[in-house]
Amino acid sequence: LTAQKGGYRFFMEKEIYEQYEVMSDTMIGRVLDNEISFEEIDENFLDGISRIKLCACGTSYHAALVSSYLFERLSKLPVQVEIASEFRYKEPLLTKDTLFIVISQSGETADTLEALKMAKHAGLKTLAICNVDNSSIVRLADTTILTRAGIEKGVASTKAFATQVMVLWMLSLYFGKRCGVLEDSQINKELDAIGHVPTVLKNALDIHEKCKRLSKRYLHGHGFFFIGRDIFYPLALEGALKLKEISYLHAEGYPAGEMKHGPIALADAELFTIALMPKTLLYDKTKSNVEELSARDSTILAISPEIFDLADDFILTHNHNHPMLEFFEMMVVEQLLAMEIAIRLGNDVDMPRNLAKSVTVE
Ligand code: G6P
Question: Where are the annotated coiled coils located (predicted)?
């Protein structure tokens, strides 16, 4: 087993460290000089499509939420995101101009599979974004894009999430081009950023020691709020989920601008705020939300490339010229931080209590 872990303490750690390599696999043949290409998708795939519905569970649901921002921005297609277990019983109104996208690492999650069946039954065009070839979801969907993350053993998903987000980002560009809503200059800017992702994931690992040191300060307290705006909001949800899954500490993800509508009532020195403060997206807005929390005495851990005086602790990220690059770096920080806190608490990081890698019952 130790050999399988390649010298790492846990599979989760190995999988975090592998992310830059698997990401290159995800991109092979798909990122070309001046365009994105998916051989899985045929020419007229988007004919008759005017909206997108995404459906998933758990971490895959968070990837869906991230992509809802990207699809609307880059493809100009209206997007709705649904939790599969909710979607199934809400008597959803499905129209045939909807592309139904399911996201699943395992391809076996019961709720996601059933949601896919419902969409097919309603005659919708379906697309699966999945990590396991020949899984139930892959067999059922009209078309599949494989994420190519390799086998993921840690119950808490890391590299699968990273590759899902990458596929969805590439897809939003691909659709944007097909729908004729993206200028070449915009596409080139996005492609340039995409090309930097593996390096960003690799360099982000430099922060590991710092996360290890910081982890000892974050073992007690009322709980954690991960906050962010825009795509950093679903990243906050994902950071909170990672921490919950493996440390068993209470954590919530929240939109930074929404804290004042309730949760700020919880703020005191025992409340830990993990603030995602990217430089390239809504920095000043997020900063003023964090200042409000700091004024109520919340303990602040800021993750940002910009020094923030009011933070109790700081994780300084690199400067990047694209929000998605900041996104991927902060994703790694969240993963390492959750893992180090869980290890310090003596938990089995790869097999957390009460959880299963894939949930094949309703
Ligand atoms: C389980 C796992 C989660 C995962 C979720 C959805 O709850 O513990 O890590 O995100 O299922 O799984 P899927 O395979 O459909 O992505």
Answer: none
Residues flanking ligand 1, CB < 6 Å? 57-60, 104-106, 109, 112, 155, 157, 355, 357-359
Convert the pLDDT of each residue in 70-124 to its tens digit.
999 999 999 999 999 999 999 999 999 999 999 999 999 999 999 999 999 999 9
* 110/114 Cα distance (integer angstroms): 6
Complex ipTM value: 0.98
The phi, psi pair for 250, rounded to 5°, reads -80, 125
CA of 356 to the centre of ligand 1 (A): 8
* Angle in degrees, 0-180, between the axes of helices 159-178 and 184-204, rounded to the nearest 10: 170
Q: What is the pLDDT of residues 265-290, one digit of tens each?
A: 999 999 999 999 999 999 999 999 99
How far away, in angstroms, is 104 Cα from ligand 1 center?
7
- Residue of 24, 62, 6, 39 whose CA lies nearest to 238: 62
Residues pairing with 102 in the sheet: 55, 128
Query: Does residue 193 contact residue 322 with C-beta atoms inside 8 Å?
Result: yes
Rounded Cα distance, 330 and 318, in Å: 10
Closest CA to 286 of 268, 272, 304: 304
- Is residue 140 very low, low, confident or very high in pLDDT (cuts 50, 70, 90)? very high
Burial class (CB in 10 A: 0-12, 13-18, 19+), 128: buried
HEC-encoded secondary structure of 191-213: HHHHHHHHHHHHHHHHHHHHHHH
Q: Residue 332 is which amino acid?
A: V
Compute the distance between CA of residue 38 and CA of residue 147 in angstroms, rounded to an integer.
12
* 357 is known as an active-site residue: yes
CB 246 within 8 A of CB 295: no
pLDDT at 220 over 90: no
- DSSP strand pairing (143-146 vs 251-255): unpaired
Strands (E), the chain: 51-56, 79-83, 98-104, 125-130, 143-146, 223-228, 251-255, 271-276, 299-304, 313-316
Tally of CA atoms within 13 A in the half-sphere of 79 that contains its CB: 22
